[in-house]
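in:
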């Protein structure tokens, strides 16, 4: 699997699109707002740039794409208004892999700019901030921007994705991700791939950020060293169960399932701290965990199976092709959720958020 070519969320605005099924991701962005607000304010006070260059890495598509950016701009603009200062201009770079649905993002920009204008009511002489938006297609495990060109980097629910499926997953038969039955060698392979990828990410961002620049990074993680907590593997284990059921029914080949592994790793705070300190380009200002319930039915707009499909479907299509009927697969998946005893429990996803500053 060439991850950089196939990894993306479901595009468009249909029923199974990521745009229509990213409520939990939105909650994560809003939960971490106090951290991003503090970081962007501290950056502005320490550097006072006339133009703030912001990169949102792994921006995906849909209403969440510009949510974090909107909040960052509003924080600075409101602060400038309260101090009687003119707001700086903002240059925003939206980054994701080339297969991302950038067209839907670009079509939403007029509404984004209109929203910025509407937030400036009252005729106080402070017009809406100048904001210029550009799309940047490419892997954030490579250099993306000119040397020392960025002030602030934001990334939410992206850095748990790996640049490739780890080596050694051929020993992970019967699983598609890390579970309690995965060999130790597979667990080691996943961690080593994550360490390489995250260190590479930090190295390139250190080259692109100005001295004193900040990053706020939120990823799916773990609270502790338990690699097999339900929050890490629950959905993927249900998917593996569904795929094996389809094997018994003759719908897909067992070997095809055995060769399918997810390029994803949920790090612990200890692991993230270790890698940041080892790489050496950033100081850690804040490292926190928060939780969001994955299988909640409190919100009528939320559908767990559809939400998971919007994330997993492109990887499944890439690996299984026309052999696998997606509607059939996720119908079975939904049935398994309904009958699963764990589905009656609260499955908590752990958000790991880190604020770092360029040394």
């Amino acid at each position: 699997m060439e991850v950089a070519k196939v990894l993306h969320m479901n595009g468009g605005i249909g029923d199974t699109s990521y745009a229509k099924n990213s409520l939990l991701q939105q909650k994560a962005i809003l939960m971490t707002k106090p951290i991003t607000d503090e970081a962007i304010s501290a950056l502005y006070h320490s550097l006072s740039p006339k133009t703030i260059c912001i990169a949102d890495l792994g921006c995906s598509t849909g209403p969440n794409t510009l949510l974090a950016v909107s909040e960052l701009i509003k924080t600075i603009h409101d602060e400038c208004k309260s101090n009687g200062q003119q707001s700086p201009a903002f240059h925003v770079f939206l980054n994701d892999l080339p297969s991302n649905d950038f067209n839907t993002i670009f079509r939403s920009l007029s509404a984004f700019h209109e929203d910025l204008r509407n937030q400036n009511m009252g005729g106080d002489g402070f017009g809406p901030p100048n904001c210029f938006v550009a799309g940047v297609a490419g892997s954030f495990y490579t250099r993306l921007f000119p040397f020392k060109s960025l002030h602030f980097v934001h990334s939410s629910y992206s850095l748990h994705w790996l640049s490739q499926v780890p080596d050694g997953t051929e020993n992970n038969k019967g699983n598609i991700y890390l579970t309690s039955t995965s060999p130790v060698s597979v667990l080691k392979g996943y961690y080593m791939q994550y360490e390489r990828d995250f260190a590479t990410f930090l190295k390139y961002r250190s080259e692109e950020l100005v001295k004193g620049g900040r990053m706020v990074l939120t990823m799916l993680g773990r609270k502790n060293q338990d690699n097999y907590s339900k929050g890490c593997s629950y959905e993927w284990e249900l998917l593996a169960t569904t795929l094996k059921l389809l094997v018994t029914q003759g719908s897909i080949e067992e070997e095809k399932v055995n060769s399918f592994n997810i390029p994803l790793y949920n790090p612990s705070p200890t692991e993230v701290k270790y890698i940041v300190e080892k790489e050496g380009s950033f100081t850690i200002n804040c490292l926190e965990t928060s939780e969001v319930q994955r299988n909640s039915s409190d919100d009528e707009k939320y559908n767990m199976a559809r939400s998971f499909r919007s994330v997993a479907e492109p990887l499944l299509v890439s690996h299984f092709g026309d052999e696998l009927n997606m509607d059939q697969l996720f119908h079975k998946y939904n049935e398994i959720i309904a009958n699963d005893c764990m589905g009656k429990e609260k499955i908590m996803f752990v958000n790991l958020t880190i604020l770092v500053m360029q040394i």
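note: The radius of gyration is 21 Å.
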